[in-house]
């Protein structure tokens, strides 16, 4: 029985292995089919003009069949329309991406080639760039509208460049770009009908981005110092470094104090809410304890007589040796009632009585003394 069981299990495992391998093969085929249906720019960067994919695409183009503007606009082109767009593309932003999108969608079935100028060319003709040419090449080739990137693009386009790269149209904005001789760089292309105009994105340009950085220079330097950059990396002096670090510390203290005050405010609101919830219970328990029918009032009524006896002086004894109830009641009344204020006439009469007593005592003493002297 055990041998049969092991044999059956081995057969089942073989079947599952076969089914698992077939499922993997089916999944791989499905993924390959999906990738074939998706545009190459979605899952991989655009190739450079010297790479094999770009070379194959260029060689497959029948450039002898020229495509005119009328054919491109009427969707009668017999092949892919090769459109070329060039620029510096420093600090690649949404304005650049929008320009490339317009170049990609200006006609149907467009193969977009983007030429990026090198550092040496750009620094000589336009000025210093923030990004290096390699960084700008990589930024452009990862834009989804781009099919091919041409490194070290020329500043001015001639006929030989168009033939070598099999370019049908050149896409750029309509603003004239003047060369050293005072003419528009794209004048010849416009005359041949090979120029396609694109719209610039207002308020967004590399110059605008650089102007924001220059305007908020101190803030960005402080941020980078806080992130670990040195004064040498940021090209600032020793005193400026210390000043920026002190400002960072002050900002940290401000933020910390704001957080502390916020937590205190939250706790205060919490306490008020809890007090409002418990206040009714506190009031009820207080009234039950100190109210008219509470235990405190009963205790006071029971012990009131004992307290009065403890604080009031004992009354004078009677001949029988017992305190009369009249004396006890009078003492209680004296204890309860405040002392009565004496009037002015009463004070004068009391003072006269005191003077008479003093004179009588004086006469008495003198009379004794005189009697002693006479004897």
Strand fraction band? 5-15%
Low-confidence stretches: 1-18
By secondary-structure content and strand pairing, the structural class works out as alpha/beta
Spatial order of strands in the largest sheet: 3-2-1-4-5
Put simply, the count of helices is 16
From the spread of the alpha carbons, the general shape counts as: elongated
Largest beta-sheet details? 5 strands, parallel
SSE run = HHHHEHEHHEHEHEHHHHHHH
- Mean pLDDT equals 75
Explain the overall architecture:
Residues 349-358 have a biased composition (Acidic residues). InterPro entries: CCT, Cyt_trans-like, Pcy1-like, Rossmann-like_a/b/a_fold. It is a single chain. It is built from 16 helices and 5 strands. Helix 11 packs across helix 13. The longest helix is centred in the C-terminal third of the chain and has 53 residues, at 238-290. It has 375 residues and is of the alpha/beta class. The N and C termini lie far apart (160 Å). A 5-stranded parallel β-sheet has the order 3-2-1-4-5. Helix content is 62%, strand content 7%. The protein has helices at residues 2-37, 40-43, 52-60, 69-73, 94-104, 119-125, 133-141, 159-165, 187-192, 206-215, 217-226, 231-234, 238-290, 295-311, 325-336, 344-374; strands spanning 81-87, 110-116, 148-150, 169-173, 195-198. Residues 1-18 have low confidence and may be disordered. Helix 5 links the parallel strand 1 (81-87) and strand 2.
